[in-house]
Amino acid sequence: MISNHEIDYRILGNEMQCVEIELDPQETVVAEPGSFMMMDNGIEMQTIFGDGAQQQSGILGKLFSAGKRLLTGENLFMTAYTNIGQGKKQVSFASPYPGRIIPLDLYHLGGKIICQKDSFLCAAKGVSVGIEFQRKLGTGLFGGEGFIMQKLEGDGLAFVHSGGHVIERNLLPGELLKVDTGCIVAFTHDVNYDIQFVGGIKNTLFGGEGVFYASLSGPGKVWIQTLPISRLAGRLMSYATFNRKEEGSVLGGLGNLLDGDGRW
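The chain above was modelled as a monomer; its predicted structure follows.
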C-alpha cells in the first residue's frame, strides 16, 4: 500500500464551505471529479483510474479499485493534484451543496471510516476508497441509502461533506442510537450498524418517516447530518410539480396576478 501523504488544510466558509489543501513539493491529494475550485500555479492535475491507492498493483488492481467505485455510483476516475513546483502550493475543493466539510484523521480513528457513498470529497494520496456492504439480510434488502456505503482506509487525512448542520456523537459501549438512514454521514468501523423495521400499521402507512431506520450501537463515533441531499431533492421536486397559484388556496391566484402572472 502507498503511504499516505501528510497534507495540511484549512476549511473556509459557513453554509457553502471549501477546503484549502496545502501541499509540499511532490505531495498529492486526490479528489472526486467536479469538486475542484482553484489551485496555485505549479500544481499538476492528472486523471487516475480508481482511487490512487492501487496505482502500483497492476491492471487488475486498478480495475478492481475502479469497479468498487462504480458499484457505489461514483465516477470510475479520480483526479490527483501534485505539487511539482518549489515551495508550498494550495489547491481548494468546494462542497456540492450547503452543509459542512468534515476532516477525518484516519490515523486517530482506527484506520477505517464508513461513510455515505456520495459524501467523499477528497483525501491525501494513499487513502483507499472502497465499498462496504452491510452483511445482514435485513440491511441488504431494505437499507436504501445506507445499504452500500463507502469505506475510507489508511492513516492519512480524508474529507467528507454533509448536508445542513453536522452533529458528532461519541457512543459508549452498548449505547444505541436510532437514525434515519439518509441522515448518517459517517461512523467509525467499530460501530455496529443495522437496519430495523419501524413497526406498527399506522407508522408504516401514515408515519411519513419511512418504514426502516438505522440502528447504531457503540462504542464508536458517528457523524449525523440534518439535511440529506435526497430529502432536499425530494422537497424541491414536490414543489416543482405544483403551480404557484395552488399555494395559499383562495389567495393563490391573487398572488400570481400581483406578481405579474396573469394565469388563474
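DSSP finds five helices and 19 strands in the chain.
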